[in-house]
Amino acid sequence: MVRFAMTKNIEISGVGVFGNEREEDIRSVKQLIADAERFQDNPDKYSQLHTEDTIIVNVAGRRIVGRDAFY
Predict the structure, then answer these.
(1) Element (H, E) at 64
(2) Domain range holding 46?
(3) Within-domain flag for 47
(4) I want to staple 14 with a disulfide (CB 3.0 to 4.6 A). Which of 2, 22, 32, 54 is the partner?
(5) Is residue 28 included in any domain, yes or no?
(6) Burial class of residue 40 (count of CB atoms within 10 Å of its CB; 0-12, 13-18, 19+)
(7) Is the dihedral of CA 66, 6, 45, 61 positive or negative?
(8) Residue 38 has pLDDT above 90, yes or no
């Protein structure tokens, strides 16, 4: 299995975000990226990071529709 290194330094700008929403959103995105990186070798956990109606196009151009088809 090929592991992809995720970007460590993420810059996210917030337009129209109030209070602590931006910081919470940034933490959530960073956590999701960290989880995706950590679970690349664990299909059960990795697939749970996606919604049921996810659509993924892999590097070979293969389209995968739905979390169940993903794994």
Answers:
(1) strand 63-65
(2) 21-70
(3) yes
(4) 22
(5) yes
(6) middle
(7) positive
(8) yes
